[in-house]
Amino acid sequence: MTDIWDPIRLGKAELPNRFVMAPMTRSRANQDGTPTALMAQYYAQRAGVGLIVAEGTQPSEDGQGYLTTPGIYNAAQVAAWKPVISGVHEKGSRFYIQLMHAGRMSHPDNTPHHRQALAPSAIAPGTEMYTPTGKKDIPVPRAMTLEDIRQTVQDFRHAARCAIEAGADGVEIHGANSYLIHQFLAPSANTRTDEYGGSIENRARFALEVAAAVADEIGADRTAIRLSPGLAMWGIDEGPEGPDLYRYLIAELARIGLVYVHVMHVGSEDLLHDIRKLWKNVFILNRPGRARSAIGTDVASGLADMESYGQMILANPDFLTRLKKDAPLNQPDPTTYYGGTEKGYTDYPAL
């Protein structure tokens, strides 16, 4: 029986265990999208898990949604990521940068160019967002032209190359949680009548083009994707075809040969098992709210190759030590999740 403490090969890398730090937006980058010394400390504190997936990182100015999130598309950002990544490598973990284009989940006040957000269709998500002057309704985005789509695919390609130049072991494409790729998948956000809308194949096209472009640029063995089948939030409704869309998408991603798929599981258990059968490479599973007593059960059963954890690792820089010693876990402070200083970020106590 496989144990979550067992080593595993991920592409060309050997990981010491099957724990993954899930990507978590913390909004502590500089205004220009460069990572900070505090971010380097935060990630290095949590090294020891087999894989750390960085917070959502915009692949372009258009891709930014929230305040003070990091980018990975220019030389200054590449240089600033290097000490973050080397600090993690020194402690034995591998590091993937998550490429996140927010799409319509953005506000012009939050981006460097202050332009209208891009999305599959001109449909607002119907929610609010923090801006420099407080909470505001998210405005209606601009429907992407075919040229916008082509450019955005190239933005992902360029960002992936920048991530590798910064020392990352690979990239995880963010196809979940109601951001741009998820918006293309959901008919509630995508009412296009061209080759990117309508049928399952058309709605999956953008995700597959991004995956193919990134894999072509840095290698499929360093390219991954995160998905959240069945997640309904911020106006996203995948509709009755949702499960079949994911079965199609997973099968097509398998043809590209991505190194892993990372599923945030909130939906159908039957679909989850179907995805596992269709996916032959490394499968990472995140179950929000997983009990401590259930840690390792999906790896042991063979349903997953690795398990990812968010809040538990956020609040416990020595997460693995606490598990080994059966020690109590710190509880996270949600009031410090986004933005701020070291409070609720690098000051959680170790044993």
UniProtKB/TrEMBL annotation:
InterPro entries: Aldolase_TIM (IPR013785), OxRdtase_FMN_N (IPR001155), Oye-like (IPR045247). SUPFAM superfamilies: FMN-linked oxidoreductases. This is Alkene reductase. It comes from Novacetimonas pomaceti. Residues 331-351 are annotated as: Disordered. It holds the Pfam family Oxidored_FMN. It comes from the Bacteria. Residues 4-330 form the NADH:flavin oxidoreductase/NADH oxidase N-terminal domain.
